[in-house]
Amino acid sequence: MRCTALLLMCVCLAACTQWRYDLGEPLSPAAPQIAAETALPLGEVLARLGPPLRISALPGGFALAWEYWEIRENLLGFSLGAMGVDFLSIDWGEAHARSQFLLLNFNDEHRLTGGSYQAREGVAGGGGSVQPFVSIVPVVDIEDMVEHLPQHAWGRGQLEPLPISLNRKQSPDQGQGGVSQRDTPVGIGQQALELR
Questions:
Q1: Quick check: 80 and 86 in contact, CB under 8 A?
Q2: Sorted alphabetically, which keywords does the UniProt record give (predicted)?
Q3: What does the longest C-alpha to C-alpha distance in the chain come to?
Q4: Which neighbouring-strand residues pair with 103?
């Protein structure tokens, strides 16, 4: 009896997935301390933190940004399709994220003038659904958080559509309008200029 119940559960289990994303490298434990310091030379900062992921020109200097994301997505779905009753599916999903973001400002003499460090951890989204007939609705959407890292797209910038190319100076990855943290909504800040 117990074996039959276990077999029935396995047959009804339509989808059970777990995705893990690691974007970037974890920041150095010295990152919060560096953000609080001033007058450090650029060379020393780069030696301690490695190369930045985002860069932007600013009036009187420039800004560099480092970020790290660890995202875990769990999805669970049940369906009666294997038993010949293909009209109902039940899905549940949840995503957790842990991130670190470090922004440092430098003057024209390549000296650190200020910085900001942010770390956060928590639920990044989730949901559930009961779907008759066809199950096509995603219950967790983390697509904007798992895009490629900025340096993977720097060469592609020359092939972007015209509205994006014309606003390249405002790019949140390498422009002159500041940097933008991953998961920032596309309708605000520099990204609002990329008329699509």
A1: yes
A2: Signal
A3: 77
A4: 65, 116
| Alpha carbons 13 and 109: distance in angstroms, whole number | 61
Per-domain residue ranges for the chain?
Answer: 8-140
Is residue 98 within 8 Å of 69, Cβ to Cβ?
yes
Structure tokens at 138: 């995603």
Tens place of pLDDT per residue across the chain (196 aa): 787 776 666 655 556 778 899 988 899 999 999 999 989 999 999 999 999 988 888 889 999 999 999 999 988 777 666 555 556 677 788 999 999 999 999 999 999 999 999 999 999 888 887 776 655 556 677 777 777 776 666 666 667 776 666 666 655 555 555 666 666 666 655 555 554 4
The H or E element spanning position 31 is: helix 31-36
Helical segments of 37-179, H only: 42-49, 162-166
DSSP 76-136: EEEESGGGT-TTEEEEEEEEEEEEEEEEEEEETTSBEEEEEEEEEEEEEEEEEEEEES---
Task: Look at the alpha carbons of 81, 84, 87, 90 in this order and tell me if their dihedral is positive or negative.
Answer: negative
